[in-house]
Amino acid sequence: MADPDGAIARLMLLEYERLKDEQRTRIGFRDNLIYVTLASMAAVITASLAAKGHANLLLLLPPVSTVLGWTYLVNDEKVSAIGRYIRDHLTPELDPTGTAFGWERAHRSDARRRSRKILQVIVDLGTFCVPAMAAMVVYWVNGPYNWPFLLVSFVELAVVLALAVEMVRYADVRVS
């Protein structure tokens, strides 16, 4: 389709700029979720330690971890989706030669990308899933063993495991 005055190209460049702005915002939000998670965990652990004999308070940690972990995962996936859209749709339309927006492809071809992404998944699991699992184990070891708390702990176990599976599934460890 002809675009003699370049209106379509200008619109696509504007779309690119807006997408990069959204990507930048999501990256900042996603990265700050780690600090929010650590602070929330510290608060739950502190409250649990202060209330001696109430290991069941640790069962507050899995919902906090999974809600923040899911939010982290969704934002991370949107950051990746924006990159894919730019690489697969905008760049070929704007520059069929493939020379524009080279960074969108180049950073995915790094020889260490796969190991870096695997380590990132391990860090993500260690941040959002492992502490939640540890909290449940501490509860299971120390009690109190009331059936509602046990039921809650097993539901939480399922939710944390689901989050862990999704984190591994969404990890894009391919090298382009």
From the N-terminal CA to the C-terminal CA, the straight-line distance is 30 Å
SSE succession: HHHHHH
Assign a percent range to the helix content.
Answer: over 70%
Provide a count of the helices: 6
**What characteristic shape results from the CA principal axes?**
elongated
Task: Give the strand tally.
Answer: 0
What's the story with the biggest beta sheet? none
- What structural class should be given to the helix and strand makeup? mainly alpha
* Residue-averaged pLDDT: 91
Strand content: under 5%
Transmembrane segments: 33-51, 57-74, 118-141, 147-168
Protein name: Integral membrane protein
Keywords: Membrane, Transmembrane, Transmembrane helix
Question: In summary, what is this structure?
Answer:
This protein is an all-alpha fold.
Please write out the topology.
Blueprint: H1 7-50, H2 61-94, H3 103-106, H4 113-128, H5 130-142, H6 147-170
Helix pairs in contact: 1-2, 2-5, 2-6, 4-6, 5-6
Notes on the structure:
This is Integral membrane protein. It comes from Micromonospora trifolii. Keywords: Membrane, Transmembrane, Transmembrane helix. The protein is mainly alpha-helical and 176 residues long. It has one domain. α5 runs antiparallel to α6. The mean pLDDT is 91.
Descriptive tags:
single chain; 176 residues; mainly alpha; 6 helices; 0% strand; elongated; transmembrane helix
